[in-house]
Amino acid sequence: MSESAELKFGGNSYSLPVVEGTENEKAIDIANLRGQSGLITLDSGYKNTGATTSSITYLDGEEGILRYRGYPIEQLAEKSNFLEVSHLLIYGELPTKDTLQQFSKSIAEHSMLHENMRGFFSSFPLNAHPMGVAAAVTTTLSTFYPGSLDPHRSEDKVNLTILRLLAKFPTIAAWAYKSSIGRPFVYPSAKLDYVENFLNMMFAGPTNDYHVDPVVTNALDKLLILHADHEQNCSTSTVRLAGSSQANLYGSIAAGIVALWGPLHGGANQAVIEMLDKIQNEGGSIDKWVERAKDKNDPFRLMGFGHRVYKNFDPRAKIIKKACDDLLNRLGVKDPVLEIAMKLEEIALSDEYFIERKLYPNVDFYSGIMYRAMGIPQDMFTVMFAMGRLPGWIAQWKEMVANKEPIGRPRQIYTGARMRDYVNLAER
Ligand code: CMC
Predict the structure, then answer these.
(1) Predicted structure pTM score
(2) Which pLDDT score is estimated for 147?
(3) CATH superfamily of 81-403
(4) Residue of the nearest CA to atom 9 in ligand 1?
(5) What is the per-residue burial (b if ≥16 Cβ within 10 Å, else e) of 146-170?
(6) Range(s) for CATH 1.10.580.10 in the chain?
């Protein structure tokens, strides 16, 4: 017999069904609560609200577990590659050798941008933040491919949009960077794989070739895998919410890019490096910054620390810390902020304030140091996160459409003025 929960209010008792997931996590289904009792639920920041059921990513914040379609993140980060993981997230299964080959080929074929899109890049001011450019150009894709406007078009059409997005985003990202520094664009090459191609478009130029270093491509591939999905976070929920109005996929992804941009979410990777640089430039005294982070009258927070759902450790941070060490060793890079980061982590992890609040380094505490070692400029860090999260956003959007989810529309408790009569301007 299925379980239910009992709610007592105003002398009445209401029975609410309990929904159980495949990992035995439970939720009270309150969909009919308002109809029965007039009550809504209130949960600012959706801290304890399930917005959907989903079969894409499983996350247990207490145990530090993250799995894509059942596969542990540790295994995927070690053994697979980003396109395999993209296929897994979007289509539900790891690809066979042939399917992966076909998938990679299709992506390579769609990686070019329409020539008329070049003009957009040159219209942005120099130094335009590449996240703004990436969001704008991603939504602009919908104007070049109007066949994508109806998300309920044939599966083939939707699939074409998915391939175009995955294929063109690295080109958009690299071109956003090139235009921000006033350098000529490098076109995608079918001879290079997904990650190599992106790095080549970033760093090659008419006067210099770029030697693709497998140490760098492997590290970047791993970073993209670690960022590929994270269930119902701020940007993913934004993609699903925008998409629930039946907005097209390009526009829904652009909405996700903007949501990711903020320093509390994907923008943290840029904010962490800025913070570490500042600590170093001001003499490297870490205690002062830890004290500031603890001071409730100071808005400063330790960037790269804390997570809404991980209350033990972030499994991605564990993998990344090791990958960061490996990358710096293999490239022979000595970044002084790495030492500051390690000291900061040590001090914060032994401080009562951080222990009590279960604040641990998150995925982006070390990712910026890795991006910097690869030569990727700071403004691009969050774009890298967006590139990694793209398959997750697409998979979540696809699932939302397949489930025929209704338009997302939360309720509120109104706290404003009660009804009052309009007073004519002359009498005020
Ligand atoms: N430094 C200092 N104090 C903190 C921090 C921090 N980084 N994070 C949380 N706290 C404190 C916060 O002040 C609060 O204290 P109190 O209970 O005394 O009021 C308590 O910890 C709980 O914090 P919260 O803001 O209620 O927690 P939340 O779940 O709403 O926020 C968070 C989660 C990630 C936004 C937050 O921890 C934070 O701002 N971290 C820094 C930004 C960051 O690194 N973001 C990247 C997240 S990982 C990448 C991604 O997937 O988005």
Answers:
(1) 0.95
(2) 83
(3) Citrate Synthase, domain 1 (1.10.580.10)
(4) 306
(5) eebbebeeeeebbebbbbbbbbbbb
(6) 81-403
Q: Which amino acid is at 95?
A: P
Report whether pLDDT(1) > 70: no
Q: Is the CB of 357 inside a 6 Å radius of any atom of ligand 1?
A: yes
CATH number listed for the domain at residues 4-65: 2.20.28
Q: Mean pLDDT, to the nearest integer, of 388-399?
A: 98
- Distance (Å) from CA 310 to ligand 1 centroid: 11
User: With contact defined as beta carbons under 8 Å apart, do 103 and 87 qualify?
Assistant: yes
Inter-residue long-range contacts of 184-193, CB under 8 Å, 24+ positions, other chains counted:
185/118, 185/121, 187/112, 188/108, 188/111, 188/112, 190/108, 190/109, 190/111, 193/83, 193/104, 193/217
Question: Where along the chain do the CATH 2.20.28 domains lie?
Answer: 4-65
Strands 4-9 and 12-20: antiparallel
Cβ–Cβ under 8 Å, residues 185 and 137:
no
Q: Is 359 in the pocket of ligand 1 (CB under 6 A)?
A: yes
Rounded CA-CA distance 24/248 in Å is 34
For 246-284, how does the pLDDT look when each residue is reduced to its tens digit (9 = 90+)? 999 999 999 999 999 999 999 999 999 999 999 999 988
- When mean pLDDT is compared across 32-46, 141-155, 190-204, 361-375, the lowest value belongs to 141-155
CA–centroid distance, residue 398 to ligand 1 (Å):
30
